[in-house]
Amino acid sequence: MLKLFSLGAGDRQLIQTPLHDSLPVTGTSVALLFQQLGIQNVLSLFCAVLTENKVLFHSASFQRLSDACRALESLMFPLKYSYPYIPILPAQLLEVLSSPTPFIIGVHSVFRNDIHELLDVIIADLDGGTIKIPECIHLSQLPEPLLHQTQMALSLVLHPDLETADYAFPPPRTALSHTKMLDKEVRAIFLRLFAQLFQGYRSCLQLIRIHAEPVIHFHKAAFLGQRGLIENDFLTKVLNGMAFAGFVSERGPPFRACDLFDEVKTGVFFCLFLLLIPNYSIRNAKGMI
């Protein structure tokens, strides 16, 4: 949608709103975060914010701090981060880092001597490409096989030459994707990851209508049981978090506007269904969805 407005003096300004209002706009920030920290480190930070740990970025560049915080928050879509989010923390507020509340915060590298004293904060050095996880933090990881599948998908997108590196006669090297396209490809991997991680969640929703406002209850035990992940530490923490509670309250009602996540989730279910029952009619399968 195009919007025309004026700032005064008879000028005309034109802006274009995003195609999907609920989908965060990242530009190239996600791709740059992977270039700065690498696949494994970004996945660790991703798991850290989903399980409500404190994450702190530091860099000599304010732009890098803003982009990194934005990228990490955007990777959580369709979940929304519910805790303090401060891309650039002023020097006068450094004491906020001692708060017991989870956060995503960026701090300039001139204060690195102060932040290294923190014992319960995961620190990411954007300039050095490293992260530091304190010994007192047990960082839960994505369940298998999703973790391996995500790592492989990211490797193929970010390092496409790895697939043919050992060929005796490798094919001509293909041009790397433009950074903006690379950003979209990486985000598509995480969107598919959430569609697989939350597949079947709607069957565990219970809508209670005895109150003036309908109450939506999510049966966590039933969801973990049907996925065979009752003892999985990562998914249990995610389901108990504030981000997932907001996800259920926002997406739980049966009549609401659907967005890109709903389309991807439906597509994942459709693919899994045909893999399990390959001879089933495509028309009937679509009808069930």
In short:
GO terms for molecular function: guanyl-nucleotide exchange factor activity. A 5-stranded mixed sheet has the order 4-5-3-6-7, covered by helices on one side. It has a two-stranded antiparallel ribbon with strand order 1-2.
Question: What's the SSE blueprint?
Answer:
Layout: E1 2-5, E2 13-16, H1 29-37, H2 39-50, E3 54-59, H3 62-74, E4 85-86, E5 104-108, H4 112-115, E6 121-125, E7 130-132, H5 146-158, H6 179-197, E8 205-208, E9 215-218, H7 220-227, H8 233-240, H9 242-251, H10 260-276, H11 282-288
Parallel strand pairs: 3-5, 3-6, 4-5
Antiparallel strand pairs: 1-2, 6-7, 8-9
Helix pairs in contact: 1-2, 1-3, 1-6, 5-6, 6-10
